[in-house]
């Protein structure tokens, strides 16, 4: 069993920085768990504590059922892949992959067999004689993965392994790492600051900020039910739109009133907000760019009070869809993702319909999600 358990783990550095604050989580056997968050949120420190490269200030760490707080990195049955690849420049690919096994006194035949197998999986069999400098970035990253695979560890730790690759290769390697995970049936703990990587790779995602876990959930759950405004803004591209305003009752209906915007909330959402005591209170209203529509069919089928006037500033053409940036409601810049066939252009004035069944509401003071 290669579950990993972090039991109220803290990391305090000498300069009083609490880099990791009460990290408490069971990582399941064979799970692909992604730690994501902005720079400095503590994700690398968490990974380095699991690897044994950083001492734990407080709390317990288990790999399987074994308490490993005081176990040396080499005895933890883990392998780590770094952003920098960390290949030995004077050794060829074969020697780089063999190095860890030689240290552990594996027989030559065993080393050969493991390297051949890993090289086949990663499609680098033809590169075994080359030195790292004669490899492309993608090939180097494959070798770094190969060096981890041959160890046959219980747990793989990966710290931004794709950051040095160009965009196309990154997408390709993403799929390869996922295939590798399915094939090897091991636990993977993967650190990234890239929310797309987190969404596409993780069985579960841990979103961190300032050393604290914000939310642990599946990509679907995190995207559709973010627990607070930070998670809502960090996950999703382009980001969710936020508007400040108040909730007011008018003619038995609950309305959101922001600067130059009035929306009548659907009955089920209104009920939750009334029950929670938000009538006549300030709230933050959230809507994702893809939950706004510019087509006539949508506008005709939905009440007028669920749409807004938009004067388009910028249009980004993504091929199949357009990102339209507009800011004529108050001073808030907003963005909508619409079908490219709509043919929208900068400086056009349009009406955008909002799918309010998908809207989010956050408490103005705590930024915690009501829904
Ligand atoms: P990045 O994506 O930039 O690598 P991160 O989320 O991985 O960021 P960490 O590297 O874990 O963040 O750092 C978390 C916090 O701990 C930061 O505030 C950082 O400055 C601090 N920190 C990291 N290492 C040390 C250290 N050796 N001594 C003191 N503070 C440190």
Automatic annotation (TrEMBL):
Residues covered by the ABC transporter domain: 4-235
From the UniProt record, give one GO term of the biological process aspect: carbohydrate transport
What highest taxon heads this organism's lineage? Bacteria
NCBIfam families assigned to the protein according to its UniProt record, in alphabetical order:
PRK11650.1 (NF008653)
Keyword ATP-binding in the entry? The reply is yes
Protein name per its UniProtKB record: sn-glycerol-3-phosphate ABC transporter ATP-binding protein UgpC
Pfam families cross-referenced by the UniProt entry: ABC_tran, OB_MalK
Question: By its UniProt entry, which PROSITE patterns does this protein fall under?
Answer: ABC_TRANSPORTER_1 (PS00211), ABC_TRANSPORTER_2 (PS50893)
- What's a single GO MF annotation on this record? ATP hydrolysis activity
Q: Does the keyword GTP-binding apply?
A: no
Q: What is the lineage of its organism?
A: Bacteria, Bacillati, Bacillota, Bacilli, Bacillales
Which keywords annotate this record? ATP-binding, Nucleotide-binding, Transport
User: Which SUPFAM superfamilies does the entry mention?
Assistant: MOP-like, P-loop containing nucleoside triphosphate hydrolases
Offer a single GO CC term for the protein.
ATP-binding cassette (ABC) transporter complex, substrate-binding subunit-containing
